[in-house]
Design brief:
alpha/beta; Urease, subunit C, domain 1; TIM Barrel; 8-stranded parallel β-sheet; 16 helices; 23% strand; binds N-(iminomethyl)-L-glutamic acid; binds fe (iii) ion
């Protein structure tokens, strides 16, 4: 007996990987399309994937007729800063009137504005705000979300942020992957005490995070005005000793060697990469690091979009994420990022689907159970109110999602859908 069967699915996009951890280069265009397909779920796992006439729907607790609909793997948003207090619409208005992101940061605004608001917020408040944002993520189809610290930037508040993330893991149905980003920027109160701040990260924060298992990854913002390549290397080496893998904010504003470093430390993901050098590209390829592109940041900051062709044609695995945060991309809408990737980053429709599913899961080292619809994998899937997946990307700025299944459970469903079945 199956728990749940989707049948008559007009387009079932499996992103089947046949055991591969990620899809690189041209393989990103292989998305395993099945017309008139079915998916069966038992005990939270996928038990059948194939043609509709290959399964008996009477042998299920519940069956959903997906005629005219598209089914995809649950999206994985592999880069967010969802835990924070205070919004920054004032700074946004300044930017719209002509100031740059860097000017605002140099004025004591930017990340430090959010640090001040986050430090004075209680864990209960931070949890409440983040739960709303996770609802928003889920509403657009993200069933797994990475969340970084990085707005505490002192011992007490970085730990507080990661404790909030742990609380969210208990409270929200979205699967959450925690990342420690104590090296996000030098906080305002350590402005002239850079060495002291680095020592704090290395000798106090990281050991505590490692000891308590509060994060799976360590991230560093490698950039002029944030951290140097050598500082970041020291942090990543210490993190690895403590059991944390690396992911890097690299080459966002300048080609500063961030991607090369990501390769050197075998980072699971190098993110942003708007200004990556050819040398950086080669390093990422040699280390199997996923290149995570963030089109929402380019849109929000009015910058040039990264050219995904450079990465994919060089044989890399590309992922797309939101970077949801109050300063450089105030949006949880992964569907919008997919449309931006199509219109502004020269990605094909197939590549985009792989980028928000299997490859994003790979960047979180979870593609063995997430990111595709294959027998044995965790049953995370989405049903959209459109007859083909192209329509999701093409008809942009609206939400096409109808039903979300997480770990085999229907966790979101448009009310009329069940009324009609
Ligand atoms: O990923 N690049 C650095 N950090 C964030 C922005 C954080 C903020 O402005 O609050 C990012 O874009
Ligand atoms: Fe970020």
């Amino acid at each position: 007996m199956m728990d749940l069967i989707f049948y008559n699915i007009s387009q079932l996009v499996t992103v089947a990987a046949d055991g591969a951890k990620r899809k690189e280069g041209a393989a990103m265009r292989e998305i395993g399309l099945i017309e008139d397909g079915a998916v069966a779920i038992r005990d939270g796992r996928i038990a059948y994937v194939g043609p509709s006439d290959g399964i008996d729907i009477s042998k299920a607790e519940r069956s959903i007729n997906a005629f005219g609909k598209t089914v995809l793997p649950g999206f994985v948003d592999s880069h967010t800063h969802l835990v924070f207090a205070g919004a920054r619409e004032g700074e946004f208005a300044r930017r719209i009137a002509g100031a740059t992101y860097a000017e605002i940061a140099a004025d004591g605004g930017g990340i430090n504005t959010t640090v001040k608001a986050t430090r004075v917020a209680s864990k209960v408040e931070l949890t409440e705000y983040a739960l709303h944002r996770l609802d928003s993520c889920l509403g657009f189809g993200s069933t797994t979300v990475e969340i970084k610290s990085g707005y505490g930037l002192d011992f007490e508040n970085e730990i507080k942020m990661l404790e909030v993330v742990r609380e969210l893991q208990e409270l929200h149905v979205v699967e959450i992957v925690p990342t420690f980003l104590g090296a996000h920027t030098i906080p305002f109160d350590y402005k002239d005490r850079r060495e002291e701040y680095l020592t704090l990260v290395l000798d106090r924060m990281l050991p505590e995070v490692g000891r308590r298992g509060l994060a799976q990854y360590c991230d560093v913002f490698v950039e002029r005005g944030a951290f140097t390549v050598e500082e970041a290397r020291t942090i990543f080496l210490r993190a690895r000793e403590l059991g944390l893998k690396a992911r890097v904010h690299a080459d966002q504003i300048t080609p500063g060697g961030g991607a090369e470093l990501a390769g050197d430390v075998f980072a699971s993901s190098a993110d942003h990469l708007d200004h990556i050098s050819d040398n950086g590209l080669a390093h990422l390829r040699d280390s199997n690091t996923v290149a995570t592109l963030l089109p929402g940041v380019s849109l929000f900051l009015g910058e040039q979009f990264p050219d995904a062709r450079r990465f994919i044609d060089a044989g890399l695995a590309v992922a797309i994420a939101t970077d949801a945060n109050p300063g450089s991309c105030m949006s949880e809408n992964i569907q919008l990022m997919m449309s931006l990737a199509a219109t502004r980053m020269r990605m094909t429709m197939e590549e985009i689907v792989t980028a928000v599913t299997l490859n994003a899961a790979a960047s979180l080292d979870r593609s063995d159970i997430l990111g595709s619809i294959e027998v044995g994998k965790q049953a995370d899937l989405l049903m959209f109110d459109v007859p083909n997946y192209h329509r999701i990307i093409y008809h942009f700025g609206v939400n096409h999602l109808n039903t979300v299944v997480k770990r085999g459970q229907v966790v979101m469903e448009k009310s009329y859908a069940s009324a009609r079945d």
